[in-house]
Amino acid sequence: MQKVLIVDDSISVARQLEKIINESGDFTSAGHARNGAEAIKMNHLENPDIILMDMNMPGMDGLTALRSLMALDKEVKVVMVTSLGGVGDKFTEAIKMGARNVISKPFDAENILRIIRAL
User: Fold this and answer.
1) Consecutive H or E run containing 68
2) For position 88, what pLDDT does the model report?
3) How far apart are CA 30 and CA 37, in angstroms?
4) What's the rounded Cα separation, in Å, for the pair 108 and 43?
5) Domain ranges in the chain?
6) What was the pLDDT predicted at 87?
7) How many CB atoms sit inside 10 A of residue 19's CB?
8) Which residues in the chain show pLDDT less than 50?
9) Which segments within the chain are labelled E, that is strand?
10) Under CATH, domain 2-117 is a member of which superfamily?
11) What does the pLDDT look like over 67-99, one tens digit per residue?
């Protein structure tokens, strides 16, 4: 079973994602980080297969964390999650930096599972 690290400053969003992950039958939650700095630390400790990471968080944001994670491990699988309307530029930037995909909130459970199963 693949482990998924959830990175989001919103507890309710993190819980929603954890529920989708844990009920999928294919994945299990590797924990929850509240910002990019925690994500980097937890990635090192938990060694998740996939990271679902919010773009906008206090402290270290998702794109900054993505840059650091990619520098540490080119094979890391990060899917960015965003609630921004019109995220064209950030979407493109995230993909260029190495994100495998970008999911918009509000998200659909089937869509999330389809995306992470394809990684």
Assistant:
1) helix 62-72
2) 66
3) 16
4) 25
5) 2-117
6) 56
7) 12
8) none
9) 2-7, 27-33, 50-54, 78-82, 101-104
10) Response regulator (3.40.50.2300)
11) 999 999 999 999 999 876 555 677 889 999 999
Distance between CA atoms of residues 98 and 95, nearest Å: 5
CA-nearest of 103, 83, 96, 92 to 21 is 103
Model pLDDT, residue 90: 79
Return the SS3 of 70: helix
- Residue 52 tokens read as 């679902």
Q: How many helices (H) and strands (E) does the chain have?
A: 5, 5
CB 80 within 8 A of CB 62: yes
Q: Is the separation of the CB atoms in 83 and 56 below 8 Å?
A: yes
Judge contact between 32 and 14, C-beta under 8 A: yes
Q: Six-digit token pair at 90?
A: 């950030």
| Gap between the Cα atoms of 96 and 22, Å rounded | 29
Looking at residue 54, what is its pLDDT?
94
